[in-house]
Design brief:
12 helices; alpha/beta
Length: 280
């Protein structure tokens, strides 16, 4: 029987994997993934792993000002013999306490990673880390579907413009084809400006969803954070953008409970890839 959980209890009692993704380039997927991971770390004080799923041209290590030779390729090479010790040897700790699994250092090694091996790696990572945030990038391909199959929640990042919403609508169609439950997908509006672009109600009406959160337009803070390697969540000044990310982390935690957690990590690899193959 289900027992009501008091608000003073931890919001999440299970392990949860998020993939942050968008069909649009330039909407800030990597920034949202990075700062969401840091905000979860701050809120929950649990281990959080950030995975750079952009196997070609990933740059989360740059955004976090980290220099390491260790990448996801080092774990993929031993995907059939992984244990916690090897995983922790490869994963790189950030000064904040966040853990990072960077993208491959070369295009060649990134191209050589197979979706079924990545799926197996993610299921192993889920046994070690309570929270995993994957930067799923901006392309709907086999690898993106593998990330979504392995995740409990899909954070869909959109911008408040017509083109972004049209692509988001098509993204929802793909998710229906893949038989994802509607509650698995949460929409976040990035670069939101009340003075310009579509309103929150316009976005919700167009996509027929309730938006989980909005992140304000703040080009200066965003650009400075990338160039300095200091994410907004770690900057000293209490900007509106930082507060918005903290609010988003709270909302993300609220939507996770035992009634809405999907069985991430349980489908067989063949099932995951048969779904993926529909995308060509």
């Amino acid at each position: 029987t289900m027992v009501a959980v008091e608000s003073t209890q931890p919001l999440v009692s299970t392990r949860v994997t998020f993939v942050v993704i968008s069909p649009n380039c330039g909407v800030g997927v990597s920034s949202v993934a990075t700062i969401l991971a840091l905000s979860l770390l701050e809120k929950e004080e649990e281990e959080v792993l950030l995975v750079d799923g952009k196997l070609l041209f990933g740059h989360l290590d740059v955004m976090l000002n980290m220099r390491t030779q260790n990448t996801v390729s080092d774990l993929i090479a031993h995907v059939n013999a992984l244990d916690e010790g090897l995983i922790r040897d490869v994963v790189s700790p950030h000064v904040s306490g966040l853990n990072l699994l960077p993208a491959p250092l070369t295009i060649t090694s990134g191209q050589g990673i197979r979706p079924e091996d990545m799926y197996r790696l993610l299921t192993e990572l889920q046994t070690v880390y309570k929270y995993i945030v994957i930067d799923g990038g901006n392309f709907l391909n086999e690898m993106a579907v593998t990330y979504m199959d392995a995740s409990n929640k899909i954070i869909l990042v959109v911008n408040p413009d017509i083109a972004s919403l049209r692509d988001a609508s098509q993204f929802f169609e793909v998710c229906r084809t893949l038989s994802y439950p509607r509650e698995k997908i949460q929409v976040v509006i990035n670069q939101y400006d009340k003075r310009d672009g579509l309103s929150l109600s316009d976005v919700e009406k167009s996509l027929q969803v309730e938006v989980l959160g909005t992140l304000p337009m703040d080009r200066k803070s965003s650009l400075q954070s990338i160039n300095r390697g200091i994410p907004v969540a770690l900057q000293r000044q209490r900007s509106g953008l930082r507060k918005a990310y903290q609010n988003l982390a709270e909302e993300v935690l609220k939507v996770i409970d035992t009634s809405t957690i999907t069985d991430a990590g349980t489908p067989s690899r063949s099932e995951a890839l048969s779904k993926s193959s529909r995308l060509g």
